[in-house]
TrEMBL record:
Designated gene of the protein: fbp
Naturally occurring in which organism (per UniProt): Halorhodospira halochloris
Reaction(s) catalysed (UniProt annotation): beta-D-fructose 1,6-bisphosphate + H2O = beta-D-fructose 6-phosphate + phosphate
Pathway where this protein functions: Carbohydrate biosynthesis
GO biological process terms held by the UniProt record: fructose 1,6-bisphosphate metabolic process; fructose 6-phosphate metabolic process; fructose metabolic process; gluconeogenesis; sucrose biosynthetic process
Entry protein name: Fructose-1,6-bisphosphatase class 1
């Protein structure tokens, strides 16, 4: 596959190599890319079309939804619900499983999505994105139930995100086929392959964590960030730089591009709320973990590989520590030593 080819051609070519392929997966990825192109356009136009600011509604997480959270969710449903490629859909913005309209053709895939990630950045024109995870639907289920979605991240057959930043970039991986990056050429509306078989540098000197939570951190995380801040004189023995965009999509994209470690660990604040972390397992942690691992990085809770977690709820949360292998291994070691 050559740099410069379109997403559509890439998918068709990949499918040619999969003897059992029926074309449905190609159709599904095409539906997702259409949804992302539309969301990219809406995000880009933002204030021009009165799309900034909050909607007067809350999602199941108790968060005030942004107008673009709600609209992106609608765009996602519209693009996927009628083409016969999915059997069911779960998103951050809907409490329960979305059931296809009566009579709608059913497909063989289940989708879990964060229609707009980094919502707190929408109104201030900072990069946001869409995250998606693809599972196989159980063959014998006409209308998937919640439990049909509760599968460990290792069962994902594909995962991806679309970043709406200075340019719009679609990044995805299908199991065993590496990580590919496509950039949207808005002139003729096609995603073009701009980087293929992406690998995350094993080493890094850049960490990302919301330091305003430091008083709530567990000792291993405190020890690690103190060591990064201590630089050459510290126990890691090298200087680190820091970044925090507050859009997980942008953090992961930076790490895929130049390495780094991203951390949203469990802390006393989330524990006090009875939560297992800040980020959601099914449509944030799992898809990003598949992408990071396929690009030679690691993704862990500090105690466990994220993709091995057996989910119990569709909106459950998980601690996330991901990125360059050497640093994630170090944080895991600090947890073990603690
Ligand atoms: O507000 P904080 O603590 O910096 O958290 C930022 C994190 O929250 C998120 O915005 C949560 O995602 P949503 O915007 O989809 O709810 C992540 O993208 C980001 O990493
Ligand atoms: Mg999110
Ligand atoms: Mg979101």
């Amino acid at each position: 596959m050559y740099i410069g080819t379109t997403l559509t051609n890439y998918i068709i070519e990949t499918q040619r190599n999969l003897p059992e392929a029926t074309g449905e997966f190609t159709g599904l990825l095409n539906d997702i890319s259409v949804a992302c192109k539309r969301i990219s356009d809406l995000v880009n136009k933002g204030g021009l079309i009165g799309m900034l600011g909050s909607a007067d509604s809350e999602n199941v997480q108790g968060e005030t939804q942004k107008q673009l959270d709600v609209v992106s969710n609608d765009v996602f449903i519209e693009a996927l619900a009628h083409n016969g490629h999915i059997a069911g859909l779960v998103t951050e913005e809907m409490e329960d499983v979305y059931h296809l309209p009566k009579g709608a053709p059913r497909g063989r895939y289940l989708i879990l999505a964060d229609p707009l990630d980094g919502s707190s950045n929408i109104d201030v024109n900072i990069s946001v994105g869409t995250i998606f995870s693809i599972l196989k639907a159980p063959d014998d289920v006409e209308d998937p139930r919640t439990e049909d979605f509760l599968r460990p991240g290792t069962e994902q057959i594909a995962a991806g995100y679309c970043l709406y930043g200075p340019s719009t970039t679609m990044v995805f991986t299908t199991r065993g086929h590496g990580v590919q990056m496509f950039t949207l050429d808005k002139d003729f509306g096609e995603f073009i392959l701009t980087r293929k078989d992406v690998q995350i540098p094993q080493e890094t000197q850049e960490f990302a964590i919301n330091v305003s939570n430091s008083r709530f951190w567990e000792p291993p995380v405190k020890r690690y960030i103190d060591a990064c801040l201590a630089g050459k004189e510290g126990e890691i023995g090298k200087d680190f730089n820091m970044r925090w965009v507050a859009s997980m999509v942008a953090e992961v994209h930076r790490i895929l591009t130049r390495g780094g470690i991203f951390m949203y660990p469990i802390d006393e604040k989330t524990k006090a709320k009875g939560q297992r972390g800040r980020l959601r397992l099914m449509y944030e942690a799992n898809p990003m973990s598949m992408i990071v691992e396929q690009a030679g990085g690691l993704s862990n809770t500090g105690r466990k590989r994220i993709l091995d977690i057996q989910p119990e709820e569709i909106h459950e949360r998980a601690p996330v520590i991901l990125g360059s292998k050497q640093e994630v291994e170090r944080v895991i070691q600090f947890h073990q030593e603690a």
